[in-house]
Amino acid sequence: MAVRTTPITSRASKPRMSLDRSIERMRKQLSELTPYLRNGQALRSLEEFDMETERLIADLLGETSEMVDAYEYAELGEAAGLVNMTDEAPEGTGMDSQRQSLLQRSRVLESCVSELEARRAAEPKTLKSGRQILTGPEVAEHMSSDIRSVSQTMTLQQAGRLMQQWKTGSLLVTDSRTYVGFLTDSILAREVVAKGVAPDTTPVSACMRAPIVTIAGDRPIIEAVRLMKDQATRHVAVTQDGQIIGVISVSNILRYYSGVA
Question: Whole-angstrom distance between the N-terminal and C-terminal Cα of the chain?
C-alpha cells in the first residue's frame, strides 16, 4: 500500500501546481495592461497585447470559456459588443470610449484570475465531478432592485410615459397576480415607430416579450452576458427562491466591466 500512496499524491499535486502557474501568468498579463490605462510606455501595441491575451485566456480557461467572448466584447467597448443583437441599439455610460474599453479588459482579466483561484480552491471537487465552475461577481450584486411594473392592459403610450418618468429602459408586465412579460424601450421603438402600431389603443400585452427571461441572483455575471447573447435581449429578470427580486440590463453589466459605480 505504501508503494501506491506516493504516485497517487504526486498525480494529485500536478493540477495544483499548474493552476498556481496559470494564476501567476494571468496576473502578469493583468499587470501588463496598466501602461495602457495610464498612458505609459507599453512594450507592444495594444493589438498585439489583445491577441496574446485572447490566446492566454483560451489556453488557461479553455477555448469555450465565456471569458474568451467577454474579452472580445471588451475590446469593442460597447454594449452592442456585450450582447449580439441586430435590433437593439447599444447603451453607453458617457465615459471616453478608449478608456472604457481598457477598463472592461481589466475587469475581464480580474474575472479570469478569480475563476482560476476558485478552480484551485475547489480542485478536489472539480477533479471528481469534472464540472467546470463559473465564478466571479454575482448577478444580484449589480442588478437594479428597483422593480418597475405595469399592467398588461395599459396602453403602450401610457407605459412609454411611465418609462420616461421613471427613467428606465424596461418594465415588467403583470396580470395583477404575477409577472407575465417584459416591455422595453426597444420594443416600443420597433412596434410603434417601425411597424406603425397605434400606441394610444394597443395594450402592452400585444407587444410584450414573454415568457420572461430569468437568471438566479447567485449566478456569476458572466453567465448573464451569455444568457443575454443567447436570448437576444438587453434585460433579464433576477430571481431568488423562484421570486423576481430585480432586473439586470446591459447597462448594469457595462458599468461593471467599465469600472463605473
Answer: 57
How far apart CA 242 and CA 245 sit, in angstroms, is: 9
pTM of structure: 0.56
What lies within 8 Å, CB to CB, of 251 at 6+ separation is 79, 91, 93, 169, 234
Q: CA–CA separation, 87 vs 103, rounded Å?
A: 26
211 cis-preceded (ω within 30 degrees of 0): yes
Q: Are 212 and 183 in contact (CB under 8 A)?
A: no
Q: pLDDT tens digit string along 197-216? A: 899 999 999 999 999 999 99
Pairing of strands 235-240, 214-216: parallel
DSSP H helical segments within 146-213, as ranges?
A: 156-166, 185-188
Q: Give the count of alpha carbons within 13 A of 210, CB side only.
A: 14
Strand partners, 244: 239
**Structural domains in the chain?**
2-86+93-129 (no CATH), 140-258 (3.10.580.10)
Q: Cβ atoms within 10 A of the Cβ of 28, count?
A: 10
Residue pair 50/73 in contact by the 8 Å Cβ criterion: no
